[in-house]
Structure formats: structure tokens, C-alpha cells
Amino acid sequence: MISFTELGKGSELTVHKNVTGKQVPQGIPLTIGAGETVTVTQALGDTLTLDIGSRLVRIETEDLENLGVEAPEQLGTNQALSLENQVWNVLKQSYDPEIPVNIVELGLIYDLRVSTLIDGRTHVHIDMTLTAPGCGMGPIMARDIQEKINALPEVDQADIQMVFDPPWDASRMTEEARLEAGLF
Question: What is the CATH number of the domain that holds 102?
């Protein structure tokens, strides 16, 4: 098994067992057969983006073993931080599958609210956009983020709302993100 942290852009892997990922940006399933050789284009957060014959495919953490890759250690949350800061840290570990920049630095998070409901439960609401409104990866990314936030001990319910007004543009990216994406 190869450690996730050893992978980088251009690393080649041979698929150990059939694995199904999501084509980027369509978000539709694609099965990669055992024995196929694939190239890593991105190994960030806890997912891989692979190049398979000029098609990009995102592989989830739970499927890494089929590629002979050890899943990365789950990042612990610092309980000393406020819940809002814990949520921001989760978001900073979520990456666009095509752009090697986390979704916070990309400027995809428009709003984050933590509130206590009448019954005392804690609710997290996030307004999020996409770099392209028709991106099929949006629902997949939103589901992943929602699951990670719901896993925080203090969170009872999280919801992610996709918003497209105002439309996203590169001016929302941090300077570091623009440098990483080659926009300077």
C-alpha cells in the first residue's frame, strides 16, 4: 500500500480492484478496471483526482484501498476552537477536483452561519457556489462537506445551499489561490 501523502501530481498507480469514481466535471460514475494504470492529477484533502485517458475522475476516501492507497488520517478538530472555526477548518480541507485550491481560498463559500435551534440543537448553514453553475460535481462536493460537518461532535444538523447569485468569478479567490491556479 502507498501512503496518500506520498502521492503527487504525475504519480502513476495500478488499480488493484475495480473502483468507481465520479467523472469531473459531469459528476457521473465511471468504473476503472483492475489492472488499469492511472495518473494522479491531485491528491489533496482526502480525495484523489485521476487522469484516465484524458478523463478526470474523482475517487472518494473509502475507495482508495482499491487503488492500493492508504487513506489519509482524518484531521482531528481542535475542540478549543469555536464551532464556527472548526467548520471553517473542515471547509479548508475540501478541494475543487479540477483546481488544486481549497474551496475557501477559491471563494466558493458565500456565507456560514452557526445557530442554536429552539430545541437546543446546533445547526450549521452554508451558502456555497461553484466556479461553473452547470458543474455536476456540485452536489457531490456539497454532500461530502455536509457529512464532514455533521461528523463534528457539536453539530446536530448541517445543510449546504447552492447559490449562484452573485455569480462566482476569479476576483473571489485569495491572492494565494490565484497564484496556485496560475492566474497572475
Answer: 3.30.300.130
